[in-house]
Design a protein that fits this description.
The chain has about 450 residues and is of the alpha+beta class. It has helices spanning about 20-30, 45-65, 75-85, 110-120, 165-185, 240-255, 265-270, 320-330, 360-375, 390-400, 410-415, 430-440, and strands at about 30-35, 40, 65-70, 75, 95, 105, 130-140, 155-165, 195, 205-215, 220-225, 255-260, 275-290, 300-305, 310, 315-320, 335, 340, 350-355, 380-385, 405, 415-420, 425-430. Strand 1 and strand 2 form a beta hairpin. Helix 2 packs across helix 8 (about 320-330) and helix 5 crosses helix 6. It starts with 20 loop residues before the first helix and ends with a helix. The mean pLDDT is about 95.
């Protein structure tokens, strides 16, 4: 992509309304634009990151055996009345009426709807277990939306729902999601610690939040420092191996870790040595629940068991804040110059900088590099603008692409160009052919 043809409305100064790093940098880099309190348009750069994250989430859900569906954003109020949550949910739920005076709502979550879909489609125990998920926009009318996409009113969420015949089988479904979440966040370069958590308005008696550490996090966290030494990428496992899955999760949860809602100070002091006690703030990026028949019972979701009896379906709910993850990754990966994207979610892999636009040698070298990289499937943002070198360097550092290729007359005179690693700041002088080989081999 040529930067001269790209829509990248960057800002030189920090927006006054931005209280945290991610909000500030998302506005400065032109990733988002606020339309009203807590509601944002996603501009080209931000949308590319959002889709990268969404695709990783989808791939790991599919790998675990979950099946993708798509449910509407608008739901009938009747479903929520049958579950008993319509009046209990509170003012965060946006309630509306259509032209026929039918009561509707903009869905903040989908337990009721997916349970009703499942109820109508499955009758026998032979059709269980199942896990259905979708990636859809939600709305919660936060009383004080702030921190950009971290606590907005409209947000993109992956929510999955498992359906099992027994509590034992449901535990296995829960465990599969647990591992899928660890894999998902590790692929994004995040250390997301699973913590005992309150179930909130979802309900249930088994729940874990996955949190990354950040001073701006909304949750207090207390955990054993040993979590920071775990290899979060070592999550390859057979999802059908019930015992192996349970043992892996037992290893990940044997250390103390809890959010402030579930924190027990005496247990913390008893189980964790003084030098291993860590407390701070965390950002929730995922939440999983098991709530049994909380929704299947009032909504009449039963299946016929092998013996002929009808039994209540056992269910769980599993959410990942896809749009929130964009902000969370920035909170975890930035420096004074701007964002530092992990390669797996970066909007482009390489930023190509022509130091002297209009110089024949520089223009030719950049064009050849740009074409060759694109032909090899490498995504490149080529800064071909007629601007000062310093401004180009500042823009590339600000938007945080993992690699920068810097081409100028001085280096070309000796047959080299410069390759910069955005994360480490390390620079190498290499021939254009060596740079191409680095990314196309």
């Amino acid at each position: 992509m040529l930067l001269s043809r790209y829509f990248l409305p960057t800002l030189r100064e920090d927006p006054k309304e931005a209280e945290i790093v991610s909000h500030r940098l998302m506005l400065r880099t032109g990733m988002i634009r606020q339309e009203s309190a807590g509601i944002y348009s996603w501009l080209p750069l931000g949308f590319r990151v959002l889709k990268r994250i969404e695709n990783i989430v989808r791939e790991e859900q599919d790998r675990s055996g979950a099946l993708e569906v798509l449910m509407p954003t608008i739901q009938p109020a009747d479903l929520w009345r049958r579950s008993g949550r319509y009046d209990d949910y509170g003012l965060e739920m946006l309630r509306i009426k259509d032209r026929h005076e039918r009561e509707m709502l903009y869905g903040p979550t989908n337990e009721e709807m997916i349970t009703d879909i499942f109820r109508q489609g499955v009758q026998s125990y032979k059709d269980l277990p199942r896990n259905l998920y979708h990636i859809q926009w939600k709305f919660r009318d936060e009383i004080r939306p702030r921190f950009g996409v971290m606590r907005g009113r409209e947000f993109l969420m992956k929510d999955a729902y498992s359906f099992d015949l027994s509590a034992e089988s449901a535990r296995h479904s829960y465990n599969k999601m647990f591992i899928a979440y660890l894999r998902t966040f590790a692929r994004m370069g995040l250390v997301a610690i699973p913590m005992r958590a309150d179930t909130g308005p979802i309900g249930g008696d088994l729940s874990h939040e996955f949190l990354i550490l950040a001073p701006t996090g909304e949750s207090g966290v207390f955990f054993d420092r040993g979590y920071l030494a775990l290899d979060w990428t070592a999550t390859e496992i057979d999802y059908n191996d019930v015992q192996g899955l349970q043992e892996r999760i037992a290893n990940y949860t044997k250390l103390y870790a809890a959010t402030d809602e579930k924190h027990d100070e005496s247990e913390f002091n008893e189980r964790v040595s003084v030098d291993h006690r860590v407390s701070g703030r965390g950002i929730e990026v995922g939440h999983i629940f098991f709530f049994g028949s909380k929704y299947s019972k009032p909504l009449g979701c039963f299946v016929q068991a092998a013996g002929g009896d009808k039994v209540e379906v056992q269910s769980g709910s599993y959410g990942i804040g896809v749009s929130r993850l964009v902000g969370a990754i920035i909170e975890a990966s930035h420096d004074e110059a701007g964002i530092v994207w992990p390669e797996t979610v970066a909007p482009f892999q390489i930023g190509l900088i022509n130091v002297k636009q209009g110089d024949p040698d520089s223009d030719t070298a950049c064009s050849k590099l740009y074409d060759a990289l694109r032909m090899s499937g490498v995504e490149v943002l080529y800064d071909d603008r007629d601007d000062r070198p310093g401004a180009k360097f500042a823009t590339m550092d600000l938007i945080g692409l993992p690699w920068q290729i810097i081409v100028g007359p001085r280096g070309l005179a000796t047959g080299v160009i410069e390759l910069k690693n955005r994360k480490t700041g390390e620079r190498e002088s290499l021939s254009p052919e060596a740079v191409l080989a680095r990314f196309t081999a």
